Each structure stands twice: as C-alpha cells, then as structure tokens.
Amino acid sequence: MNILILGANGFIGSHLCEHLLKNTEWTIQGFDIKDFNLGNCLGKDNFSFRKGDFYADDEWIEEAVNSCDAVLPLVGIAKPAFYITNPVMTFHLDFEANLKIVRMCVKHGKRVIFPSTSEVYGMSTDKELKEDESPIILGPVCKSRWIYSCSKQMMDRVIAAYGQEEGLRYTLFRPFNWIGSRLDTFTDARDHKARSITQILYDILNDREISLVGGGRQRRSFTWIGDGVKCLEAIIRNDNKCADGEIFNIGNPANNASIKELALMIIRVLKEFPQHAEKAERAQLREIDSRDYYGKGYEDVQDRVPSVAKAKLLLGWEPETMFEEAVKKTLEATLRENDLQVVS
C-alpha cells in the first residue's frame, strides 16, 4: 500500500511513520511544515517527505491524495493551552482546513482515516465511553475549550455523511491520552503550554512547583503511543474491510489515573534516574484553580474511560503497556531527546 500521512512530523505522525517503516513494506509519503521528529525515517527507501504548508500546497496535496491508497490527515491543534486562547485558529485548522482533504478523498475515491478525539464525548456521564452509544455532551459556548471537541465532532459527522451519501470509505479513531516522546517540547512546557506529562517533567527538572490544575483530581486513561500505533496499523491494514465505516476508541482503561497520581508516579520513576533523583526528591505539588492557570475559557471533565471492546472484536487489538511502564518509557525517551539536560 501507499500511505499518505499529513502532519507526519507531529507526535502521532512521527511515531506512526517509524512503526510502519519498521513493521510493513508499505510506501509512506509524509507531509508537514517541519521534519525535526523524522530523523529515523528520512532517507529510508520506502519513505518520502515533502516540506510544505498545509494551507497553501493544495495542488501537491491533491496529487498525493490521488496517488495513494489511504490518507491520514493528522494536522491539527490538540493542546488545551492553545485551543482555549486561539479558538478561531483551532476551528480553522481542525475543521475547515481538514475538510478540503476529506473532499479530495471523496473526489478521487480514496480512503480516509481521520483522528477524532476522546474529547468529543465531552461531559458524558457514561462510566465507560462507547463509540456508537455514549451521548456527546459539551459545555456552554462561553467555555472556549469546547471548540476543539466541537470541531472534531462536526468532522466526524461530515465524514460519516459523505460515507452515507457519496460512498466515502472512512475510519475514525479516538485517542485517549496517548503519551510518549515528542508529545510536547520543553519550550511549550517553559511557557506552561505542554500537556500533563511533559509539563510535570519539565517543572521537576527546573525546580518549579508542579501545578495541579483543579487539584489534579481529573482522571484520564493514559495510553502508550506504541500501543496506539499498533492499533492504527490494524486499521490501515483493514483485513476483510473490518474498519470501514467504523469509529474506534484507542485507549487503555486499565491505566485510568488522576493527574495527581500521574505527578506522583513521575516523581517516583524519576528518582530511579541518578542524574535527576535529587530534583525528584525536592519536587513540590501546588493546587491551582483552573481559571488561574488556563483562563476563564477552561472547563474540564472529571473522568474519561474508553471501551475498547470494538477494537478487540474487529481489529484483534488490545493495549498492552501498563501505567508505570508507559510513564517510564516516556520519561526515558524525553530525557534522551533533551540530552538529559535541564532546560533553563
């Protein structure tokens, strides 16, 4: 197969490119504005990369769509600190700019595998979130956090509608708090714009208090990126068309933990690294109101637990990496990528 990955330099994109090059003989075309995460892919026989602008390079993108077997449009904004303060940009990129890719797939009869999000479930009261059953409940318009979820939900519905009316072949997948290297940069963390695991690690290494937004009581189901991309491979492979027209949660319900528990786990694991044990010993937790950290547009969900029964039934996939191992792997890789240095 010939696979087109738009946003190949991102967290999911770069790990997926590496995984597919290592485990398949497929041809991978990557596209992104930068390539700093693709060092393990560039120069490989089955990998080609185009550095370009997602907004402007429509001619090249459409030619690439027409020449491939499946398209994964992974370009998007997925960080609360960004989409709370930049809601219009979030809508433009996550919905409008990606809609043109979906329409190209319709025009050329190509399969699209689109990243939805666990956030589409919003404030659903279901204890276990199911792709085809759980209600989608979003907060009020004055809480700008929900524009990301709303944009993704609308894209889910538009893609499904194209499938119904135009015969578009599609699969939607919903990542549940995937963690691993390259999730965020230490520059993001310096400015308090990183997601939880990178932010907490950076704060420890730089002798800053760990901010527990809302007391860190929110619970998430943390999923190792390596498990996630294995599921994506099964979706792309699509044996017996098992993934056509389906939505899949990709998460690890066994790794459900609060943000405070995540912080304590990071501290404990970091103590195992001699170079950083002293800083881990000194780490301090501080509870902070969400409005003081993110601003008035923030609202949060107290828990998100995915059902992965459908992925097991149709794809034969289950998550394998438990919470402590996933955290340790993430810390090891992130420290290695930053040369084990404390960033000032």
Task: Provide a brief overview of the structure.
With 344 residues, this protein is α/β, with parallel strands linked by helices. It contains 13 helices and 13 strands. It is globular.
How is this structure best described in words?
Helices cover 42% and strands 16% of the residues. The protein has 344 residues and is an alpha/beta fold. It has a domain of 230 residues: Rossmann fold (3-Layer(aba) Sandwich), CATH 3.40.50.720. The strands form four sheets. A seven-stranded parallel sheet has the order 3-2-1-4-5-6-11, with helices on both faces. The radius of gyration is 20 Å and the shape is globular. The model has no long low-confidence stretch (mean pLDDT 95).
Write the SSE topology.
Blueprint: E1 2-6, H1 11-23, E2 27-32, E3 47-51, H2 58-67, E4 70-73, H3 80-85, H4 87-108, E5 111-115, H5 146-166, E6 170-175, E7 178-179, H6 186-190, H7 196-205, E8 210-213, E9 219-221, E10 223-224, H8 225-237, E11 246-250, E12 256-258, H9 259-270, H10 277-282, E13 285-288, H11 290-294, H12 309-315, H13 323-337
Parallel strand pairs: 1-2, 1-4, 2-3, 4-5, 5-6, 6-11, 7-10, 8-13
Antiparallel strand pairs: 9-12
